[in-house]
UniProtKB/TrEMBL annotation:
It comes from the Bacteria. The keyword Flavoprotein does not apply. This is Uncharacterized protein. Keywords: Membrane, Transmembrane, Transmembrane helix. Signal peptide: none annotated. The keyword Coiled coil does not apply. It comes from Aurantiacibacter aquimixticola.
């Protein structure tokens, strides 16, 4: 089976998560489902043990293509990661304030649509990186797919909790279309490695924020040990992949 067919199947699996996450009833418990905490740990492990080291490894390449020194290139790349975190945090605060405003229904609806579009853009990038990302070989692609799948479970569950009706009616279809469109773009659009790296950096910040906002609030009653286990397990898989185990 060729890489196009494999990544196409992965894109469809991503789409299935978006569409059917509401049927995973075992996640809707308090204290927070240990599976969600485990998924969050895997996603964080992916960012810190895979994405950020890859960005550091390409500093010289970034510097040459940008026409700047390596320190400046490093600052630009990590600033993009910070920008991704800040952008998605700002959107999250808008969603929360929408529910507290006097004209709550109208404002919340508009802000939730903005939130859906922004999350859709993140999905577009994730779908694109299935074919055009930094992953090399079956192991790397499998680790990317696993981490992003679990991230989608965590993020979609939280998004659906914010407004179940809006998510079920239109939100899930928008983000599903985006991840499929991203994969299709990967078939026809070949961006430079530097631009892909910059997009990857922004994606890293967004994922860190999305995971931590689901794990940290006290009312979630998150489970630390499953979160830690997910992080350590993913770390072990990354180390095994890099050493050819």
């Amino acid at each position: 089976m060729g890489i196009t067919a494999i990544t196409g199947a992965m894109a469809l699996a991503f789409a299935a998560i978006h569409i059917f996450v509401g049927r995973l009833h075992f996640l809707s418990v308090t204290p927070r489902s240990r599976w969600l905490s485990f998924a969050g740990g895997v996603a964080v492990g992916y960012i810190f043990l895979h994405v950020l080291p890859e960005l550091a490894a390409h500093q010289r390449e970034f510097a040459e293509e940008m026409g700047v020194d390596r320190i400046t290139a490093e600052s630009v790349v990590y600033s993009l990661a910070l920008a991704g975190l800040a952008t998605f945090y700002g959107l999250e605060r808008l969603v929360q304030r929408g529910g507290e405003a006097g004209d709550a229904k109208r404002m919340q609806r508009h802000v939730l649509y903005l939130h859906t579009v922004s999350y859709g853009a993140l999905n577009l990038l994730i779908g694109y990186l299935l074919l055009q990302g930094e992953e090399e070989g079956a192991w790397g692609l499998a680790l990317y797919f696993t981490a992003m799948s679990l991230h989608f479970v965590t993020a979609d569950f939280g998004m659906r909790e914010d407004n179940r009706a809006a998510y079920d009616r239109i939100g899930r279809w928008i983000i599903t279309a985006c991840v499929i469109a991203g994969w299709l773009l990967g078939l026809v659009l070949d961006l430079s490695k530097t631009l892909i790296g910059c997009l990857f950096a922004f994606l890293a910040g967004g994922i860190v924020l999305n995971v931590l906002k689901e794990e940290l609030p006290e009312e979630r009653q998150s489970a630390f040990l499953p979160f830690l286990f997910g992080t350590l397990l993913y770390a072990a898989l990354v180390i095994a992949e890099r050493h050819g185990v």
